[in-house]
Here is the input.
Amino acid sequence: MVQLSVLDLVPVRTGQPTGQAINACLNLAKVADQSSVTRFWLAEHHNMKSVASTSPAVLAGMIAAQTVQMRIGSGGVMLPNHAPLAVAEQFSLLEAAFPGRIDLGIGRAPGTDPVTSWALRGGRDDETSNSCFPENSRFPEWVEQVTALTMGSLPVEIGTRHFELNATPAPISSPTVWLLGSSGYSAALAARMGLPYVYAHHFTGQGTEEALRSYRGSHVGPGRPRTFVTVNVCVAPHAEQAWQETLPHQNQMARLRMGLPSRPMETIEEAQASGALLSGNALEKMTEPWLVGNPFEVAQQIFELADRFEVDEVMIHPINGAHDGDPIDANPGREYAVRELASRLVDVS
Here is the structure.
């Protein structure tokens, strides 16, 4: 069987207060937990009116407190936005409160626009403000610092003096550190550091085979390479309905690519009324890696995806839009997608 996991960006739709969007996230997490999903991750994004997941650590604590068995974590924390010690302390604290259930997924992208990125980093105008993060940046050093701090202590030299830095409070166990990426650079870094690796297949659907081959071929350290992929899914009782439920996400992604002002996610009816912002080859290229259809069709596509990339776990990002009449604190379409796919993919024996 394929292990099923869930990625959430905590979407905010038209007329929905942020608090209710968070409640919808909590409801989705409860459905996932009851469906024996393996892990539930939150992504870090900033200055986007359609996304409420600005702080994965805070959300992870809220979700872990209301679930029982699945692992909770970040997918991911954008490490250049934060001090490594702060990240290590946040997730060590979560691990202390929920031992054996916390994942720390780390990414190197900005997760926002350049101005907000600059502000998040305290107005620093140096190489860390470059969204491309060249290979000679300090990102590998920061990952090493976080890993060391979550597992014990970090030796630090300031001038001629030597210190031992600790992340406190210290949990009995350590959160599992994952490296996230959508490029060969991230795959090579994860392999070199012996870290588990997740490929963001849901970004473009390109380069997945090459990155996973590179990671597996050059992985060092104890144990076998651990990896899985993420993918956008939309599930409804009928394929035509499922495609209709992707319309809000289609338009939201189109707005980002076209540089249009940020706005809350449209409802399905609003998207139908406003019309698609993309069509033809542009729309086909964007949606090509998405898995859209009825539960049987999408479950089969996930099996095929897992077989194609030789992984035993797939993390789905449910992109079902909400209807005008849906509860303000829930998204029944996304809950349906998780519940139905879990019933076909997860071995609960």
